[in-house]
Amino acid sequence: MNSDKLHYAFYRGCCFQGADIHWLEIVKEVMGLLDVELHVLEQGVCCGSGVIEERSELTSLAINARNMALAEKMGLPLFIPCATCYNVIANCRKVMAEDRESFRLVNEILKEEDLEYEGTGQLTYILWAIAVDVGLEKLAERVVTPLTGLRVAAYYGCHLRNPPDIQDYEPADHLTSLENILRVLGADVVDYGTKKECCGFHLTWPNREQSMKMTSNVLCGIHRQGVDLIVTACPLCYKSLDAGQPRALAATGHDFLVPVVFFSDLVGLACGMSRERAGLDWHVVPVNVRL
Amino acid sequence: MATPLNIERQKVEANIRVHRFNPEHDRAPYFDVFKVEVETGMTVLEVLQVIKETQDSTLTFRASCRSSICGSCAVRINEKPVLACSTQVIPTLVAFWKSSITVSPLKGLPNIRDLVVDIDPALEKLSRLHPYLMENKEWIPETLEHESLMSREELKTFDRNTDCILCACCFSTCSAVSVDPGYAGPFSLAKAYRFSADPRDSFKRPRMQAAQDYGLWSCAQCRKCITVCPKDTRPAVAIQRLRKISIDDGIHNTPGSRRAKAYMNDVAKFGQVNKPILPVVVNGPKGWAAVEAEEGYLRKHGLTHSLQAPRLPGQPHVARICQRVRELTQNMTKKRTALRPSNEESKPHRAEEEGIRDE
């Protein structure tokens, strides 16, 4: 392995495979621009999105301890690109640390595959990998087309903030790494009132109507501030705010559209990627801003 | 790294912005700013008392125990619901990098005056969820010679939820409460879980029906309630468990329960969720519109749409994990039933036994 680079085990989640496979290449390329090499965790499986707990908590713990154990075996920190996956896996780490019985049971299950979860591996989220591990200084060096004059709203979503003890990169009450990244890219970060509200992604199928109300609520709060672009720290929030936007706004009687991007795509754009390479053609709400 | 202990006492002048509203003469709420000298260790409640005693005797707020037991002093500090008696001012100023804090009443409940809200609408919903035990005759011994015992493991499943003090901090922060007026709120559903998980109870079924009616599937699992709960009761986790009990108890015919079963089956079968067909599995034929929209979107980008997710390389291991968990859960239930004090006529623990049987 090249020692000038940062190396991570890359957990794909569901946003970086299947119909969204193009996103895997984008993330790899963006991270490559920052001297980060991602090694795909081929044996990794779906975290269950906090839903399989509604059938069996032990299954969720075993699956996610397995995901972490695979990275431990590779000797690399686990790099997670989706906030919900991060939340579920970090929650598993927390339960395994505080409940000895779960730790014992899970390892008994994993033994069959010759795996052991030790709890020694590191977890990181793509946001903190860029803001902290790579660092803002290095990011600033790599910016070739600054986003000067672009008014952006930074939206973290809920699963990086709640509960506060799933990460120790920054105070959960007062997350700033996304804003810091956006300022380094040259954008003007605009504050707004619905920053800590939920986009409703996880109700898309079980409770569509409510999910749309929640999406619309977040969008209206941002729209009031007259922003050019919404930047999310979570790919699922991106999906509900972009793909879910036209329907949600129509259902709640609003007539506007605001483009949305996942933050790492914007990092790529500022660091020299083309609009096509950064996947802007895939957006449902057209990204009609000068980038 | 632990921060070194600083025993030096600090004193700062802080600006305390307080939400004011008196319905008798104010047309709308406004903020008053009070300058207060704050010392290390002083709580928000103490500051409010100082203001009332020395600056404005009309300032109205609720408080009683001053020990985070009664839950009556819940307010929002810089938008975050907290107990005023257990929140210190100086660390809050430091956390927000400001020389002021903003104190406002809980959200989602009618504001009666200044910092006081009417909690009755939330409690009214709680009362609909049967928050009490109805004796389980098959569990409770007939004679007084035996106590109605439960094991530590059984208690552990809901012990945390017995610590709830009904302060309504979770209700105030909840994402679902703010868009769905009919939603019971996190603490009420967590109470429904607390009583339904208790082996001495026999009222699970009516309680599950009430939970469906009051928003069991409206919770978005944003987990903000876990963050704000001053007693670490983790309501969102209780709601996940309540959903499990409701499915185990036979309520299969809801979009939420169909989603839970689909996720569980798919992860075992493919190593991931079979997302292409999920809208139809969860919502029936009306889900086809979403599938077709996705198909059109992919076609636009030159991709063909498959209705089946590919099997991931790790899938066989997940299938094996699911099977092992099933075996372990059954063994644990058998062991537990055998350890029960009066076990001849008692019924096994239904939720536990059924467990993840239907996968």
Describe this structure in words.
- The complex is a heterodimer of chains A (291) and B (359).
- With 291 residues, chain A is an alpha/beta fold.
- In chain A, 42% of the residues lie in helices and 10% in strands.
- Chain A folds into two domains: 6-125, Up-down Bundle (Glutathione S-transferase Yfyf (Class Pi), Chain A, domain 2); 143-270, Rossmann fold (3-Layer(aba) Sandwich), CATH 3.40.50.11810.
- Chain A has helices spanning 21-33, 57-74, 83-98, 100-111, 126-142, 177-184, 208-223, 235-242, 245-251, 263-270, and strands spanning 6-10, 36-40, 78-80, 123-125, 151-155, 188-189, 229-232, 260-262.
- In chain A, the strands form two sheets. In chain A, strands 2-1-3-4 form a four-stranded parallel β-sheet. In chain A, strands 6-5-7-8 form a four-stranded parallel β-sheet.
- The longest helix of chain A has 18 residues, at 57-74.
- Chain A is globular, with a radius of gyration of 19 Å.
- The model of chain A has no long low-confidence stretch (mean pLDDT 94).
- Chain B folds into three domains: 12-117, Roll (Ubiquitin-like (UB roll)); 120-248, Alpha-helical ferredoxin (Fumarate Reductase Iron-sulfur Protein, Chain B, domain 2, Orthogonal Bundle), CATH 1.10.1060.10; 255-336, no CATH class.
- In chain B, 40% of the residues lie in helices and 11% in strands.
- Chain B is built from 14 helices and seven strands.
- The two termini of chain B are 45 Å apart.
- The model of chain B is unreliable at 343-359 (pLDDT under 50).
- Classes of the chains: A alpha/beta (291), B alpha+beta (359).
- The interface between A and B is large, with 58 and 70 residues.
Q: Can you count the beta strands of chain B?
A: 7
- Overall pLDDT confidence of chain B: 90
As laid out across the biggest beta sheet of chain A, the strand order is 2-1-3-4
Helix content of chain B: 25-40%
Oligomeric assembly:
heterodimer
Evaluate the radius of gyration of chain A: 19 Å
- The total count of helices of chain B amounts to 14
Largest interface: A-B, 58 and 70 residues
- CATH architectural designation of the largest domain in chain B: Orthogonal Bundle
Number of helices of chain A: 10
CATH-defined superfamily of the largest domain in chain B? Alpha-helical ferredoxin
Task: Summarize model confidence as the mean pLDDT of chain A.
Answer: 94
Q: Provide the low-confidence segments of chain B as ranges.
A: 343-359
Please provide the ordered H/E string of secondary-structure elements of chain B.
EEHEEHEEEHHHHHHHHHHHH
